[in-house]
Amino acid sequence: MSQTDPISDFLTCIRNASRIKRESVDVPASRVKAALAEALKAEGFIRDVKLLPDEKQGRIRVYLKYGPDGERVITSIQRLSKPGRRRYCGVEEIPTVRNGLGVAFVSTPVGILSDRECRSRKVGGELVCAVY
After folding, report:
1. Tell me: the pLDDT tens digits for 42-64?
2. 129 in helix, strand or coil?
3. Is the CB of residue 71 less than 8 Å from the CB of residue 106?
4. Torsions phi, psi of 39, nearest 5?
5. Strand 46-52's sheet: what is its strand order?
6. CA-derived radius of gyration, the chain
């Protein structure tokens, strides 16, 4: 795992596990990853999130969600703001993903929120990722 962008590694683990239709995936824990996982759960992209303690920093177990016929709920997950190029936006500039079919997650002073919540609370921040 890369040490330069742990959020990107987290998203890549979810993307890879979803492609091979695994039930769950474990990633090293951090507060940002846990908040992002909870936001994904609140928007209905993953089934459940559990924090597993271990002797180092802990692990986050993400239980992936699939449709009734086994189709993936997460078809695409991509990082928008990267360490080399951070993307910040005000509430008016938050992008809509796939004309509202997807969700953009934004790191705000209130926490990690979906694009719909940011518009309703009138708060902007750093674009984290887009999921659809």
Report:
1. 999 999 999 999 999 999 999 99
2. strand
3. no
4. -65, -40
5. 24-28, 59-64, 46-52
6. 14
